[in-house]
Amino acid sequence: MKASYACGSTEHGIARRQFLRGMAAASTGAVAGGLGWFTQPLAAAQLKSEQKRIVVFNMHGGLSQLESWDPKPGAPTGGPFRAIDTSVPGIQICELLPYSAQQMQHMCLVRGVNTAEDDHGKGAYMMLHGRRQTPASDFPVLGAVAAKALSTPSNALPGHIVITPGGAGGRGNDASYLGPKFSSISLGGGKPPQHMDRPANISEQSDAARNDFRRKINEQFLSRRRTAVTDAYTFSYEQAQQLMQQRDVFDLSKEPEKETERYGKHDFGRHCLLARRLIEHGVSFVQIAHSNYDTHNENFNFHIEQLGEFDRPFATFVADLADRGLLESTLIVVLSEFGRTPNINVNYGRDHWSRAWSVCMAGGKLKRGVAYGKTGPNGTEVTDGQVDHGHLFHTYMQAVSVDSTGHFDIDGRDTPIADPARHVIKEVLA
Predict the structure, then answer these.
(1) Is the model's pLDDT at 107 over the cut of 80?
(2) Which of 70, 95, 186, 340 could cross-link to 64 by cystine, CB 3.0-4.6 Å?
(3) d(Cα 7, Cα 59) in Å, to the nearest integer?
(4) Tens digits of per-residue pLDDT, 203-230?
């Protein structure tokens, strides 16, 4: 769905066009001979059983915490909706999420988020990078960090995939110093990346011959003039070759009709089903966009529609991962750039509010069926368990067994995985 009454910020104008095209860049360290050994079934099966994954649901625009995870029925700021019981006694959420309420035994709510940033772009940066944006430095996005920390060479599929209604298959530039190998690849409409089919006028034998020739030329060139750039191009070609052999992973027609019915035959439902297929095939990080929650006008009518679309596919996704034994190794996060004001404005909307809002998580090493942190009776301030974007980033990493206080070795320089000024939320880890 699309809100026609958002705030009109620059971020909303470019959010679905921010991914750069092309897959020519990748990381260093690839070998010219190819990636074939890592796709042997025994090695792949062993690594897959040990792999951790992260799935992020990015509620662009700012999901209202009062109409989702932290309702305040009866309060002057509460709005018209009831709070309903969940599968966990004592935890209630908004009545707009009845299917999610049935999966609360798998979930962990963090209700004391205070990021103190009401700007769309800056807030989104903080939530997806775990740090504030500064002119002096740029940091890799969560998906790039997860791909770097969690991906294994056994998988020909990219480690960092972003699914949006307008995704076009291009590779982004959001990995910063981790290198383009870990940048996002965007998908849209449940479709596979572009150009995955061999041209009809090139036979399989001819294609194999030209790739063998390319590898031989590469080996000759790299023996004399090997650089990070040449390694990046080599890896990109080899990954593209393996990716073409995995095209069926992106093909939702391979799913039984009853599966598409369960998730819903709209974009978001298809995207959730695609995300399930991707993590089942070893993709380390998938982000699914659902927008636009920037409800400065008609907040309540819009949340009825938007959460009505979100609730069932999301709950089905959580339940499926639990039923398939994947929730132990998969972290699920539902986040926004901020929440919405407790105050209801003259247009029956809620404005930007970063001082007291909520993030929902599930799976991994998190405690299940808990709500951590509290806001006051009107939802205007955090009264217990206050955390911010940096604490959450540490927690995401620790929930998938990554030591968030550790470092990446970037060209011989130790670079912190997460903001060293913040720490994990110990209270939500099992």
Answers:
(1) yes
(2) 340
(3) 15
(4) 878 877 877 787 788 777 777 777 656 6
pLDDT tens figures, 65-78: 999 999 999 999 99
- CA–CA gap between residue 319 and residue 100 (Å, rounded): 9
The CATH H-level (homologous superfamily) assignment of domain 10-428 is: Alkaline Phosphatase, subunit A (3.40.720.10)
CB 423 within 8 A of CB 130: no
Length of the chain: 430
Spatial separation of the C-alpha atoms in residues 341 and 79, rounded to whole Å: 11
> Given pLDDT bands bounded at 50, 70 and 90, which one contains residue 169?
low
Listed in sequence order, the DSSP H helices in 37-161 are 41-50, 98-101, 120-129, 142-150
Return contacts of 346-351, CB within 8 angstroms, 24+ apart.
347/296, 347/297, 347/298, 348/297, 348/298, 348/299, 348/300, 349/5, 349/295, 349/296, 349/297, 349/298, 349/299, 350/64, 350/66, 350/295, 350/296, 350/299, 351/296
Domain boundaries along the sequence of the chain: 10-428
Using a 10 angstrom Cβ sphere, with 0-12 exposed, 13-18 middle and 19 or more buried, the burial of residue 133 is middle
Handedness of CA 273, 148, 195, 163 (dihedral sign): positive
Cα 280 from chain centroid (whole Å): 15
- Work out the pLDDT band at 38, boundaries 50, 70, 90: very low
Q: From residue 27, give the alpha-carbon distance in Å to each of 77, 138, 150, 304.
A: 50, 18, 15, 44
Q: Is 87 left (phi over 0), alpha (psi -120 to 50) or beta?
A: alpha
- Across the range 121-131, mean pLDDT stands at 97
Residue 308 near residue 34, CB atoms below 8 Å: no
Predicted confidence (pLDDT) at residue 20 exceeds the cutoff of 70: no
The three-class DSSP label of residue 308 is helix
For residue 429, the model assigns a pLDDT of: 97
Per the structure block, which two tokens stand in for 196?
Answer: 């995955």
